[in-house]
Amino acid sequence: MIAGQGMSLRNHLQDILSAYADIFGETNGVQAFRLFMNSYEELADRKKNLAGHVTGSALVWHKPSNSVLRVHHAKLNCWVFSAGGHIDAGELPWQTSVRELREETGITATPLYDAAHPIPFIMDAHPIPASSKKAEPPHWHYDVVYLYGVDTKPEIQADPDEVSHFKWFDTAEVTLENSPVTLREQMLRYGV
Predict the structure, then answer these.
(1) CA-to-CA distance for 69 and 55, rounded, in angstroms?
(2) What is the pLDDT of residues 68-100, one digit of tens each?
(3) Which of 148, 138, 40, 19 is nearest to 84 (CA)?
(4) Per residue, what are the HEC states of the chain?
(5) What percent of the chain has pLDDT over 90?
(6) What is the pTM for the complete model shown?
(7) CB-based contacts of 63: which residues, under 8 Å, 6+ apart?
(8) What are the sequence ranges of the domains in the chain?
(9) How far apart are CA 75 and CA 188, in angstroms?
């Protein structure tokens, strides 16, 4: 199915989950997404579903140095994949990843996925602590991460409200959340 306008988030997720599982297998992330999608009608609106919501993120790869950009999330006080956030109304996760990457780092990078059928690089579920400032209880983010490439390391224009630090990490240094697989191994399976 082509990822165009009019495709619902649920339909899109069902489509990419199958394609992702064909490449990477029945990972914990795939299983968490399926359980979430089977349990809740609302998948993205954080005000309508306090248990969790789908987010879109970007991971930027600098091929010449085989390194990836990671950012230190200012609000969560931890290292995360490049940039990401909540899905706006009418967006699909890959569109969110492009927007969030630009908003949080100032980067525009080349997608390393087929734009007609954007298969994620990582699908992961992780807990988010309660936020008294946002009046949100602890909940889960079901993160759809897309891979982008740059030939030269760009100047980062970090949004200080979102990003407190950033650093390029060698792909062999980064192990996927809840998995012994490194990013380098994931990239080989992804075909880059």
Answers:
(1) 18
(2) 998 888 887 877 777 899 999 899 999 999 999
(3) 148
(4) CCCCCCCCHHHHHHHHHHHHHHHHCCCHHHHHHHHHHHHCCCCCCCCCCCCEEEEEEEEEEEHHHCEEEEEEECCCCEEEECEEEECCCCCCHHHHHHHHHHHHHCCCCEECCCCCCCCCCEEEEEEECCECCCCECCEEEEEEEEEEEECCCCCCCCCCCCEEEEEEEEHHHCECCCCCCEHHHHHHHHCC
(5) 55
(6) 0.90
(7) 149, 150, 151
(8) 9-190
(9) 32
Q: How far apart are CA 45 and CA 130, in angstroms?
A: 16
- pLDDT score of 148: 96
Greatest alpha-carbon pair distance for the chain in Å reads 44
d(C-alpha 141, C-alpha 145), whole Å: 12
Encoded tokens for 128: 């988010």
39 phi and psi, to 5 degrees? -100, -20
Give the domain 9-190 fold: Nucleoside Triphosphate Pyrophosphohydrolase (3.90.79)
Q: In whole angstroms, what is the distance from residue 82 CA to residue 40 CA?
A: 28
The token pair that represents 57 in the structure block: 């993120």
